[in-house]
Amino acid sequence: QVQLVESGGGLVQAGGSLRLSCAASGRIFSVNTMAWFRQVPGEEREFVAAMRWSVGSTYYTDSVKGRFTISKDNAKNTGYLQMNSLKSEDTAVYYCARTSGFPVTYYSAGSYSYWGQGTQVTVSS
Predict the structure, then answer these.
(1) 8 Å CB contact between 25 and 86
(2) Which residue from 4, 5, 8, 64 lies 20 to 30 Å from 76 (Cα-Cα)?
(3) Closest CA to 20 of 86, 112, 100
(4) pLDDT tens-digit profile of 43-97?
(5) Main-chain phi, psi angles of 107, to 5 degrees
(6) Secondary structure percentages of the chain, helix, strand, coil, to 5
(7) What DSSP letter does each residue of 6-17 carry, written as one string?
C-alpha cells in the first residue's frame, strides 16, 4: 500500500502562485509515476501533469504548460506542483496520484492506483 498526503492549497488572487506538495509513504519503491489531477463539481477529474519518478521526465496538459511545474524531492519522497500565473479557471480540488510503471494512458485517472485526499485551490479574479 501507498499513502499520499497533499498540502499547500488555498485562496490566491489571479496571477498569483501556489505550491502543492504530495508526501508519499509505504511501498513507495513500487510506484514510479506521479501525477496531478484536478476536479470541479459536476465534472470529471482532469489531468494536469505527470512525472516518471525514476527518470524525471514530465508531461503537462496544454492549458498549464509554461505556468505549472511538476517536480520531486527523492530524499523526502515528496512530489510538488508549482503553479504560477494562476487563473480563475484553475480553481478546483487538486489530487496527487501514483501508480506502478509508466502507463501509456498516464493522462487518465483510471490508470492510477493510489490517490491523495485532495486539496482545494481557489483563484479569485
Answers:
(1) no
(2) 64
(3) 86
(4) 999 999 999 988 889 999 999 999 999 999 989 999 999 999 999 999 999 999 9
(5) -90, 0
(6) 10, 50, 35
(7) EE--EEEETT--
Between CA 75 and CA 80 the distance in angstroms is 13
Distance, CA of 114 to CA of 47 (rounded, Å)? 15
What single-letter amino acid sits at 100? S
Question: For residue 70, what are the β-bridge partners?
Answer: 81
* Cα end-to-end distance, the chain, whole Å: 40
Looking at residue 37, its amino acid is F
Query: Which residue(s) pair with 69 in the sheet?
Result: 82
- Alpha carbon dihedral 100, 29, 57, 49, in 10-degree steps, equals 60
SS3 category, 102: coil
